Amino acid sequence: VVAAALAVGGLFARLWTDAKVSTVGEAPFDNPLVIPPVAESTVEKDGTRVFELRMQAGETEFRDGVKTPTWGFNGSYLGPTLRAQRGEKVRVRVANGLEEASSVHWHGMHLPARMDGGPHQMIAPGATWTPHWTVDQPAATLWYHPHPHGRTEAHVRRGLAGLFLLDDEKSARLPLPKRYGVDDLPVVVQDVRFDGSQLAGDRGLMQNVGFLGDRTMVNGTLRPYRQVHDELIRLRLLNASTARTYAFGFPDDRGFSLVGTDGGLSARPAVMDRVQLSPGERAEIVVRVEAGERVMLRSFPQDNYGDAWQRRFGGGDDSFDVLELRAAERLRPSPGLPAELVEPEVPREEEAVRGRHFDLKRSGINGRAMDMGRIDETVTRGTTEVWTIRNTNGMPHNFHVHDVQFRVVEVNGAAPPPALRGPKDTVFVPHGTTMKLALRFTGPADPDTPYMYHCHLLYHEDEGMMGQFVVVEKGQPAGKPPGHSGHT
Ligand code: C2O
Ligand code: CU
What is the mean pLDDT of the segment spanning 353-372? Predict the structure, then answer.
């Protein structure tokens, strides 16, 4: 009894000390920000753009003189930025150079289920998987990461993630900052904790939302700064953390313009001073800098994170300095932002032919833990549906759907705030939230190969907060998913 009491006491003591983390003002931001290289590609005779990705183990020097074992794509940590045009055929040769099986999922991409890279498209050690598809969606900031069932958290946290940017004619014509690494910066945010030379994060540390780090990195750089030479800077923010939700803004509360959400550009720039991103979500923001100033991108404590207990133990009270922008003494003038951007390609609620309900619980969705051999939902190709997502579970979750970009129709019965008005594939659903989404499934039909929907807090996903849906032709029955591990 005494030992148990001590163990429990120790646990709470640790949670308590871990409860409020702040790196605000802690150290000079003097490491130059790493910009992930744009992936090289070759173009075949029929116009197919071909990329090569290799998952591999390596060592990364995050801190001077300390080598940390990590995983990466084509390098030791994170991966190159893939980039393609709407209408282009792409093929990716994904080699697994690890000693365990994994997969690579194209988060936010509309593509056939067999190419999706979920837990049914595993790549054995030493094997290569070569998905191919035609890019058929608007310009957007997408990303890629492993998705092996039960192991996604570990694979992503060790460093397997990268951006996949899509361009189209409309985005090319708009006067938005678009010089990659110059006035259009990739900002892949992760929280980490070091245990000596190792990245911490064993399962014993997981509580509540999952693993929370005590400092952040951008593109794998600790305490990063970036010199900028333009008045307007576009930041493509990706929350690539496995559990932590951020609320980004600037210490002087300056307004910035949100110009894009997960799946593409917004209808028009929306000025705000905070943007909240849960794991997997993206936002494109444009911020104005003054000549010679240093301005910190910061993550602030969050009100909208459930009750006080949830905020505290889910990391919602934490604050981080994330990335310092150092503006040059002379800045190039930037054109003003256009009043209108693009009409987002998201379905309308009025088109919906049916509704479904998803109840989020730590133990599973709609009372069931993930089973790779079970199809949970069957949707008809070419139809729009309204999905109602509800969290009364007492802890924060989010909700991600593969293959589609949806419209957020309602949050707790009200119109969505500006940050949720563009194309979305992942939404934060804190305790006490009911959210209505409109989703359109355009296929192709494949009754045997499921797509996933799940909580993108990866520990929750691994532990079963995931379900499977197939897209079928009208009247066609769902098939039986192959590859259920172990039996059949
Ligand atoms: Cu980013 Cu199913 O995942
Ligand atoms: Cu969750």
Answer: 97
